[in-house]
Amino acid sequence: MRKIIFLLFLIPILGISQIELKGVLTTGNSGTDVWEYIDPNNGKIYAVVGGNGMSMVDVTDPANPVEVSHLTSVPGFDVKVWQNYVYCVTGGGGTAQIVDISDPANPVIAGSWPSSHNIHIDSNGYLYASSPGTTIYDLNPNPTSPTYLTDIGTEGHDVTIRGNRMIDAHGFAGTYIYDITDPSSPQFLTIITDPDITYHHQGDFSTDGNYLYICDELGNHPQADITVWDITDYGNPTKVDETADPSATPHNLYVIGDYAFTSYYTAGFRVFDISDPSTLVLADEYDTSSATGEGFAGAFGVYPSPTTGNIYINDGSGLYIFGFDGLLG
Hints:
Low-confidence stretches: 1-14
Distance between the termini: 32 Å
Shape: globular
CATH topology: Methylamine Dehydrogenase, Chain H
Order of helices and strands: HEEEEEEEEEEEEEEEEEEEEEEEEEEEE
CATH superfamily: YVTN repeat-like/Quinoprotein amine dehydrogenase
Number of strands: 28
């Protein structure tokens, strides 16, 4: 017992990063994706929460989150923010909708476009809609009416953009990487396929861009949950590490600095240390879900904000706001 107490005492001295629960809201909308919006007029911070529609939660004081609006007339499977708009998709076909959140307490539907399963919006205002295929739109001419640019592939599932490179997690077909210096004309760089990966669900690059982390949402133990690939040679991507949990399934993973922030369904929220980008080391975890086993219950959406240091987990049980001292360095 003395040794355990001594080690716990050493944690802050050694500077080991830990998860901090800042706040939780279990009475509002929740269940799917989550993002962040900072009001440019007053600096207030909001979590944009998907689930039964889309809701705005004031997290300026993260210990006391308050749902200020809930719009149930729009889809809420995936939600992403560009300027003062939230882009909401169904998770399948039908119509996606665009919501003006200039007044977070009174969001207004401002436009629509054909829905997809997931979306990603890069810092230059290009929207990437995944499944079926990957369709690229330009939001700059008119954010309420996305301008079609091009489409690639036939399956698709999720996209991540880092700089001028696109990760196209293409489901059963593999993970593709493209150069999107010109978003209207993506240039193929490489594809990763592996018989041990059932479904290429989502992924992200290491900070140095030399490694790729792929989440397999349909992998069952002993299959790996997350694999690590050395992509320094696009002609020969090489698997260098993997992690597997027999009792949980990963969903999404986002890299900032030396850490990968992961929603891990029934296991909740996990942070991996990737200071050595070729290796995944579990740094800390927080179980947000009472569910157990491999499957899709529990922590679905994750968004680590490099601006506020908040990390949001959207779980079927509620919205969780975390801190992690390694996020902001």
